[in-house]
Amino acid sequence: MLGQSAVAVAGDYEGSPRVAEFVAEMTRDYGFAGEQLTVLFNQVERKQAILDAISRPAERVKPWKEYRPIFITEARISKGVSFWNQHAEALARAEKEYGVPAQVIVAIIGVETFYGGNTGSWRVLDALSTLCFDYPPRAEFFCQQLREFLILSREQQVDPLSLKGSYAGAMGLPQFMPGSFRAYAVDFDGDGHIDIWNNPVDAIGSVASYFKRHGWVSGGSVVSRAQVKGEQVDSGLTVGLDPVKNVGQLRALGWSSADVLRDDVPVTAFRFDGADGEEYWMGLPNFFVITRYNRSAMYAMAVHQLSGELLAKRGVQ
């Protein structure tokens, strides 16, 4: 497929030594045809807007009371219920096969792309090439994703110039990076082709596959609201997201919960600035799995709470 749309035209990377070195590597190590790849990269466009976007200083991190309303909206809930109803069979099958609740799968797709409404308009090949060849701070990561993208294009027999995604190269309804696609995406409708761009059934199965492979515990809880007291409470807070403490250790620091939790359960302990004041939470193993999708406690909580709203709204219809 690499040669189907290839036309020898001058492009931003024509004659680039870095591209030539990359092409040589793909030819030597991965069995690609060097001439075809050279012609392909001649059509790639370097996107300054992508470099500007990824280099922009991070915005002020919003507190939970501002972050939550972005994702927990009536529009996102209603659209999610419609998506769930439309794909109920595939969602039920994914829940049965992978143990991941339907509402969690729907919430991921809802948070990532508003159920496929905003999957990105950049050519993935342009995005990954720009970041591989012209963004030194993360060149190693994006060059690896570019390798994965070319391999998946070959495996799936699709024109790499035809696939679109985010400015960072995330793709389809679930916004998988190419490496995640190759590791976790599945042909959930059995048509012999994995399509997370246009096929919600494959997207649903792929999200469930990702969660299962990252340790989702079927039937397990996600978070537990904590009550806190004492002077040592904040020393229980987790630095980062890895669950380095357990419930018993938090109890000793003044944390408690109305939920019945074993002392040996590992937790990610965090505090949010909520609309009604400070909120203390214990993120359980399934919470940590959600953070593997996006390394953010607020992201994981938004997915979790949206999933609850979806379940409640669909249940009363």
TrEMBL record:
Any single biological process term in GO: peptidoglycan catabolic process
SUPFAM superfamilies under this entry?
Lysozyme-like
Catalytic residues of the enzyme: 112
- Which InterPro entries does the annotation name? Lysozyme-like_dom_sf (IPR023346), Lytic_transglycosylase_MltB (IPR011757), MltB-like (IPR043426), SLT_2 (IPR031304)
GO MF annotation: an example: peptidoglycan lytic transglycosylase activity
Transmembrane regions listed in the UniProt entry: none
Tell me the ranges covered by the Transglycosylase SLT domain, including all copies. Answer: 18-307
One Pfam family cited in the UniProt record for this chain: SLT_2
The organism sits in which domain of life?
A: Bacteria
What this protein is called in its record is Lytic murein transglycosylase B
According to its UniProt entry, this protein's organism is Aquipseudomonas ullengensis
